[in-house]
Amino acid sequence: MEKTDQRYRHFVQILREELVPAMGCTEPIAIAYGAAKAREVLGRLPEKILVEASGNIIKNVKSVVVPNTGGLKGIEASAAAGVVAGDAGRILEVISQVTDPQKEEIRSYLESHEVRVAPAPGDVIFDIIVTLTAGADTVRLRIADYHTNIVHIEKNSEILLEAGAVAGAGGSAGLTDRSCLSVEAIVDFVNTCDPEDLRETVQRQIDYNCAIAREGMAHDWGANIGKVLRAHYHDDIKTRVRAMAAAGSDARMSGCEMPVIIVSGSGNQGITASVPVVEYAKYLEADPEKTLRAVALSDLLTIHMKTGIGRLSAYCGAVSAGCAAGAAIAWLDGGDYETIAHTLVNALATISGMICDGAKPSCAAKIAAAVDAGLLGYSMYLSGRQFYGGEGIVSKGVENTIANIGRLGRLGMRETDREIIRIMTNQPPRG
Predict the structure, then answer these.
(1) HSE-up of 397 (CA within 13 Å, CB side)?
(2) What do you get for the CA distance between the two ends of the chain, in Å?
(3) Cβ-count burial of 179 within 10 angstroms (0-12 exposed, 13-18 middle, 19+ buried)?
(4) 52 within 8 A of 99, measured Cβ to Cβ
(5) Would you say the C-alpha torsion 411, 246, 248, 251 has a positive or negative sign?
(6) Of 13, 98, 120, 175, which residue is most buried, by most CB within 10 angstroms?
(7) What structural domains and CATH numbers belong to the chain?
(8) 172 pLDDT band (50/70/90 cuts)?
(9) Alpha-carbon 413 to chain mean position
């Protein structure tokens, strides 16, 4: 693919938009970011906070530790951390510089101030509305569609920012058009691109995400899935790629204060798309340039598969990233477009039923399972085995199968998503 090709510029820009740093699970951090920005507009500490959040936000914040809060969980803690100690200029690292005295201030604020949570109105899947009140002053701020997309700010009924229509279910208003992505074009780009166009964004992803994976293996985090895999399975490369990816999530889901580089709005997906690929590249003694290309391949395949599903759904995002990692490992082994396409179809056919029931320690185990499916998809291809169009959700051609997965995650699992949220919020079953 020539640099003059418009797709080339789009692919580079997509990577720059997607591969951004975040500290902690991105949904609570998005709340903290919105709260910090709203406080900046308010100009003082609010007396009351109201957070209106869509069901998927509630689902993903409920069970995960908010970093730099002394172990607090939930939307209330996220909002309080943002208003008390957040630096909105750091965006998804908004609470990365919290001091020990500020951690106590966050806890004290929660005990002495009203922080209320309510369902967001409407049916936007990714929706956060933060309202801060101090005396006669009120600030209302809305983030929609993705984690940093502030679409509305008003103070005392004066509109300070109005970004236009919200994209809605699965939308991505304000981002580079992803319709240029296809498996064939991605493989072409990765094979021919100038590695300098990848180095800043992808190398940072490698550095950050491998560092938190090493932390997860070195210390006691969450359910220690990474350590469990290393202790009870053969110590071969297939175990190591799964264990290291899981270990990164072990640490991240349990409040580790190290940053990660996200993909498709998710740190777990960013870890899953990169860490197994880097581990396999080390095993092959691949040079740094080839490693960069392989991780970029995994990232772009993940983004491509997630585009049809949307940022948040009942479909576990680790599936897309784990299948993409398996395809990138196939590429490292010398696989061509056909190898990658078959690896993806085989892997997607294997594991596409895995649900997302929020951010929590079990995400690490799901990551391990997703990476295993990616490896199995590649092993099937090497053995001359495959799943065929017409078998279940598989259609002839990798793009048709990816489209089916998007339809499944975005439309077919919509009621599943609602039921998961009802279960997690202790609501009775419908009907």
Answers:
(1) 6
(2) 54
(3) exposed
(4) no
(5) positive
(6) 98
(7) 23-162 (3.30.1330), 181-424 (1.10.4100)
(8) low
(9) 18
Q: DSSP secondary structure string, 32-69?
A: HHHHHHHHHHHTS--SEEEEEE-HHHHHHHTTSBPTTS
Question: In 3D, which of 307, 6, 311 has the Cα closest to residue 179?
Answer: 307
Q: 84 is written with which tokens?
A: 């008390």
Give percent helix, percent strand, percent coil of the chain, each to the nearest 5.
55, 10, 30
pTM over 0.90: yes
Supply φ then ψ for residue 215, to 5 degrees.
-60, -40
Judge contact between 216 and 250, C-beta under 8 A. Answer: yes
Share of the chain above pLDDT 90, in %: 92
Q: Which amino acid is at 370?
A: A
- Residues 243 and 62: their CA atoms lie apart, in Å, by 25
**Exposed e or buried b per residue across 124-136, where buried means at least 16 C-beta atoms within 10 angstroms of its C-beta:** bbbbbbbbbbeee
Of 22, 40, 25, 140, nearest to 82 (Cα)?
A: 40
Helical ranges in 140-236 per DSSP H = 183-192, 196-218, 225-232
Instruction: List all residues 6 or more positions away from 80 whose beta carbon is below 8 Å from its beta carbon.
Output: 35, 49, 106, 109, 110, 113, 115
Q: What would you report as the CA-atom Rg of the chain, rounded to the nearest whole angstrom?
A: 21
Q: Give 240-276 pLDDT, tens digit per residue.
A: 999 999 999 999 999 999 999 999 999 999 999 999 9
